[in-house]
């Protein structure tokens, strides 16, 4: 499985880039997984059945219907364990810090780029890409109009050098 990390600050364009990339890769028949890293996530609404079970003390909540399964657990599984359960071709994760094959950095403005560690960055996207074509020696790509070029970074890395 190839892994892409989309990094950047809040409201910089990470999720927009991820969604555009998912849609494009799906159109090419890739199986795509998405991982959202967040300080706090809750899938158990207060008065729902699963929320009531959580309030009662359940350590893990599993919700399953005819098409899908959701798991909410008190355990924080390692990325390796999570990936071992997936059958996807590509994982797109927001703010993965390691273990990725490609890094996209989303920024709103140049000052965010000036203070970021971009040594492993393959391209820059996000709001910044609406106005600029490059930053130092890093290509800037707009996910709204250049999603194919962004996908090439994952699908065919040797061709990404031609961008």
Summary keywords:
single chain, 163 residues, alpha/beta, five-stranded parallel beta sheet, 6 helices, 24% strand
Secondary-structure map with pairings?
Elements: E1 2-8, H1 14-27, E2 32-36, H2 49-56, E3 60-64, E4 69-73, H3 79-84, E5 90-94, E6 102-106, H4 110-114, E7 123-125, E8 134-135, E9 138-139, H5 147-155, H6 157-160
Helix pairs in contact: 1-5
Largest sheet: 5 strands, parallel
Shape: globular
Number of strands: 9
Annotation field: number of helices? 6
Mean pLDDT: 87
Structural class, by secondary structure, is alpha/beta
Order of helices and strands: EHEHEEHEEHEEEHH
Describe this structure in words.
This protein is α/β, with parallel strands linked by helices and 163 residues long. It is built from 6 helices and 9 strands, in the order βαβαββαββαβββαα. Strands 2-5-1-6-7 form a 5-stranded parallel beta sheet, with helices on one face. Strand 8 and strand 9 form a beta hairpin. Helix 1 crosses helix 5. The longest helix has 14 residues. It is globular and about 55 Å long. The C terminus is likely disordered.
What's this, in brief?
The chain has helices at residues 14-27, 49-56, 79-84, 110-114, 147-155, 157-160, and strands at 2-8, 32-36, 60-64, 69-73, 90-94, 102-106, 123-125, 134-135, 138-139. With 163 residues, it is an alpha/beta fold.
